[in-house]
Amino acid sequence: MPDDPTARGAARLDAAMEARGLWPDEDSAWVRDAMRVLARHRFAPDTVWHWDGSGWVPADRAEDADAWAALVYPAPEESTVIQVTDGMPTSSLSCAGVVADMLDSLMLEPGQKVVELGTGAGWNAALLAHRAGPDGRVVSVEVDPVLAKAAGARLERAGVRADIRIGDGAAGAPDGGPYDRLIATYAVESVPWEWVEQVRPGGRLVFPWGRLGHFALTVDADGKSATGWLQGLALFMADRNAVVADPAPAAPGLPLGDGEVSWDAEVFVDLVDDHLLFALRVSHPRVVVSVDRTRSEPRVLLRDASGRSATVERTGGRVTVSGDGEDLWPEVRAGHRWWCGRGRPEQWAFGMTVTPAGQTVWADDPARGPYAG
Question: Which candidate in 94, 105, 140, 225 is catalytic?
Answer without folding.
Answer: 94
